[in-house]
Amino acid sequence: MKDKQEAVVAILFFYFIEFLDSISIGYEKADRQKIILINNFIGGGNLTDNRPMIELVGMGKEFVSKSSTVRALDDINLTIHEGEIFGIIGLSGAGKSTLVRCINFLEKPTSGAVLFDGIDLGSMKEKDLLKARQSMGMIFQQFNLLMQRTALQNICFPMEIAGFSKKEAKQRAKELLEVVGLSDKAKAYPSQLSGGQKQRIAIARALATNPKVLLCDEATSALDPTTTRSILSLLKEINQKLGITVIVITHEMSVIEEICNRVAIIDQSRIAEIGEVEEVFARPKSKIAKQLVFSGETHIDTFVGAHKCRIIFDGRTSFEPVIANMILECKAPVNILFADTKDIDGKAFGQMIIQLPDEESSRKKIYNYLNTNKITYEEVM
Amino acid sequence: MWSEATVKMISVGILESFYMIFLSSFIAYIIGLPLGVLLVVTDKDGIAPRVSLNKALGVIVNLIRSVPFIILLIAVMPFTRAIVGTSIGPNGVVVPLIIASAPYIARLVESSLNEVDQGVIEAAQSMGASPMQIIFKVLIPEAKPSLIIGGAIAVTTILSYSAMAGIVGGGGLGDIAIRYGYHRYETEIMFVTVIILVIMVQVIQELGTLWSKRSDKRIH
Ligand SMILES: Nc1ncnc2c1ncn2[C@@H]1O[C@H](COP(=O)(O)OP(=O)(O)OP(=O)(O)O)[C@@H](O)[C@H]1O
Ligand SMILES: [Mg+2]
Q1: Which ligand is nearest to the CA of A72?
Q2: Residues B118-134: pLDDT tens digits?
Q3: Are residues A190 and A300 located together in one domain of the fold?
Q4: A311 CB near ligand 1 (under 6 Å)
Q5: Average pLDDT of every residue of chain B
Q6: Which residues of chain A, if any, have pLDDT below 50?
Q7: pLDDT of residue A105
Q8: Cα B207 to the chain's mean position, in Å?
């Protein structure tokens, strides 16, 4: 008798909570839609309402074994906003994979906290944590598809885990195949697909349970440049059309350039630098950032000539023929020793190293020109 | 060339052998499969690490596996009698066969499941799969071809154990081979039974390999 009463109270309480939840979610949704509409209307590209989706607070991770302790991450503070494409870059062994695995708690941080959509993952019960992971899709360098399942069955897999009905799962899987452009491969097994196709299936699979976040750990590192570009543009499309926050882990600067809004550079277990991609590319501050951005110039110091100058294109100046104008205006010849410019969001970024004339007067003219035109430069020794 | 009685004896022997092999394989798998799964998932790098349980299971499995079958067969006789009422004949042999082969099967299953790509397991975890879901939806289905091969190996091993049981009057082909060949020097009958055993092993192994290849979607 008493048991029954308790059960009824528990059920009522459950519905009450559900009800409250549905109200607040409904409100948020309406709000978000409005923002999307406004954004689209004024032509603003990315969602910039700055709602934190993932917050890492003083997060650290140590791997302890009998013989040694490895500090893979140290005091990581990072906020990733809803709707952005956030890049995390670093050299091999920097801790990138560990970082992304901490975000969905595949790896439990040994200090600090991970907040997902405002909720501390560390405080969750195991069951709720599993549920939360269904809101975070993940794709991998090696695709990690189930080899004994067809493409369609692979996409159904996370939905089976989340408790979708068979029919519903199959229906949605077919739609997702269309989204990734592989409707004709529904019955193919992973062994019959190319790398790029496998990654597309993996992306469809990661999207199956309607995640809020998509984690990509070196998702393009096993692919050739053309396929890489097509996968990246698919990720961008997913981000823009579905509003899913995308976190991209990579060791290639070109991946960051191609799709990211902001980037964090990880070096030796710590964040060395965080910022807008354009800013970091134009004015890298940390040593590791400079190393990554200017990776092509290792041989600069072997160039002859005493006076060298690095001109930085930061997106403002690139559409004018800077160098040509400078030569015309200063009437001084310069030698281009190195150039590495890239197109990011329609603007060119990068750097050029030029050799200046030996006469001091000509050099002064050139510096004047650069100063008056507000072109960023620095002397290189 | 043989009397009807001899032919009948050999056919009964074949049937008895089949009976012992399949009954004990079946029950040994009921014990060995979960045991193998447990060995994999409770490993310190497994999906539900329970280090002390894992160590304990490992020791038990190794202990039983290190006892030669012929000694185990005799040592468990009182236990066998208590369970099936006899320690001779096919029924008397099934019990020691199960005891001997279950830990062996557990190890076979363990090694098959360990072949499953760690990345695929990680992917399932990233989707919020529980350990149970991973076992039934990832580990076992992905390891299926290898589990089938392991199954063929287990069944042929049980077949050879069952033939050994002829020494204690276990029934089946092994019993006939020992009685006629060893005790009565009727080498012809022994020869025939041994050939039948060889054919059975070949057929089981081939069928297992074929089935495994058929079910494997990795190679086409
Ligand atoms: N399970 C583990 N046990 C012990 N040490 C580990 C473990 N996982 C990672 N590490 C260590 O943590 C550090 C960071 O590794 P991580 O895999 O995160 O690097 P990464 O930046 O992803 O490198 P890569 O670009 O090569 O993938 C490395 O020194 C690595 O040896
Ligand atoms: Mg890595």
Answers
A1: 1
A2: 999 999 999 999 999 99
A3: no
A4: no
A5: 93
A6: 1, 14-47, 298-299
A7: 95
A8: 16
Tell me, using a 6 A CB cutoff, whether residue A209 lines ligand 1.
Answer: no
Q: What is the pLDDT of residue B179?
A: 85
B220 vs A contacts (CB less than 8 Å): 189, 191-192
Write the CB contacts of B14 (distance below 8 Å, at least 6 apart in sequence): B173, B196
Same domain, A159 and A207: yes
The token duo for B88 is 């001779």
pLDDT > 70 fraction of chain B, expressed in percent and rounded: 99
pLDDT given at position A42: 36
In the prediction, which pLDDT does A371 show? Answer: 85
Distance separating alpha carbons of residues B41 and B55, to the nearest angstrom: 12
Clarify whether residues A315 and A334 are in a common domain.
yes
Report pLDDT for A36: 39
* Number of domains present in the structure of chain B: 1
User: Which residues of chain B, if any, have pLDDT below 50?
Assistant: none
Number of domains forming the structure of chain A: 3
User: A15 CB under 6 A from ligand 1?
Assistant: no
Question: Cα–Cα–Cα angle for A183, A187, A189, nearest 5°?
Answer: 115
Domain holding A195, by residue range, is 49-291
What 3-state DSSP class applies to A49? coil
Burial class (CB in 10 A: 0-12, 13-18, 19+), A371: exposed
Strand A119-120's sheet: what is its strand order?
A: A69-81, A52-64, A111-116, A119-120
Contact check, Cβ <8 Å, A148/B117:
no
Supply the CATH number for residue A57's domain: 3.40.50.300
The pTM for the full model equals 0.79
Q: Which atom of ligand 1 is nearest to the CA of A95?
A: 18
Give contacts of A140 with chain B, Cβ < 8 Å.
119, 122-123
CA distance B166 to B182: 11
User: Are residue A156 and residue A22 in the same domain, yes or no?
Assistant: no
Q: Which of A59, A65, A67, A70 to mutate to test the pocket of ligand 1 (most atoms within 8 A of CB)?
A: A70
If asked whether residues A9 and A53 sit together in one domain, one would say no
**CB burial readout B62-95, b (16+ within 10 A) else e:** eebbeeebeebbeebbeebeeeeeebbbbbbbbb
Residues of B whose CB is below 8 A from A132: 128
Q: How far apart are CA B174 and CA B180, in angstroms?
A: 10
Q: Are A142 and A217 in the same domain?
A: yes
Contacts A–B by Cβ distance under 8 A:
80
Same domain, A188 and A108: yes
Tokens of B121: 């397991």
- Answer yes or no: is the C-beta of A355 below 6 A from any ligand 1 atom: no
CATH of the domain at B41: 1.10.3720.10
Dihedral pair phi/psi, residue A62, rounded to 5°: -115, 135
Domain membership of residue B58 as a residue range: 4-219
